[in-house]
Design brief:
The chain has 310 residues and is α/β, with parallel strands linked by helices. Helix content is 46%, strand content 19%. The protein folds into three domains: 69 residues, Arc Repressor Mutant, subunit A (Orthogonal Bundle); 99 residues, D-Maltodextrin-Binding Protein, domain 2 (3-Layer(aba) Sandwich), CATH 3.40.190.10; 100 residues, D-Maltodextrin-Binding Protein, domain 2 (3-Layer(aba) Sandwich). The protein has a five-stranded mixed beta sheet, with helices on both faces. The protein has a five-stranded mixed beta sheet with strand order 9-8-10-7-11, with helices on both faces.
Length: 310
Amino acid sequence: MGSIDKRDSTPQLLNRLRMRQIALMLAIEERQTLRAAATQLGLSQPAATKMLHELEDALGQPLFERVGRQLRRNAAGDRVFDYFRAMRGSMEALNRELGELRQGSAGRLVVGSIMAASPGRLTRALLDLKQQLPLLEIEVAVDTSDRLQAQLHEGVLEVVVGRLAAASADECIFRPIDDESLAFIVRNEHPLLALPKARFADLQHYGWVLQPPGSPMRALIEQEFREHCTPLPRGLIETGSILTTINLVRSSDMLGVIPQTVGALNDAYGMLRIVPYTLRHKLESYGSLVRRDRPLSRPAELFLELLHRD
């Protein structure tokens, strides 16, 4: 299989790649077999086989290994699929924007955010954006940073307000906003509130509500347990929902861990109480994340200006 001259590889690759080949690659991932992918695209199997060979020839190396009747991506196939999936996200975003322009609307902005940013800076930026673009449609997804960045990569979200994962460092532009502290929360009248300052050992007498493994908040709690040479409690309730955490804590003697900004707001309104315990470490700064290889819409650019203003 021929290779492409590295001195002029990108223009040659752009000339040889076709959108139909990209669609075939994505369909193979979805359907697992070449026959099913061909059917999905309305191709005969010989035509799909030829198209796959042409794609591998254009890229200079094979992308799959056959395992029975299925095709399994190799290392090169994994990287190609990641880029093609991002291209599909870009095309979906472009299609949405063109459709909105045809309809004469002010457009649509889809933002993802961690909960910590919601009570203050994010809310102000969204309200100010609506003042300047009153007809703009805005969707806000609230989740953990790792899940939001996956949606950013796929083109579901245009902007994320969260923490930068190491795996996304080369693909995203990150602008820091603020540090994030965590708060241990309990119901009003909880026994821990009678202590002038809770020790880590005092917290072990109660059940815990934590975010699922993989989230930055969970990683910080796990680090706290390791530094105290204490295993994680058994019988955890795991949820990425801050609202569910608050509801569980308010109805039991369990402890929850949520962003300090959210905990302080609920404490001020008498919804719950913050335990007098300070974690040894803080989470890394959160900020705005956008794809490095994807142009921003005008609403997204304006939102970022408002989000980062002093």
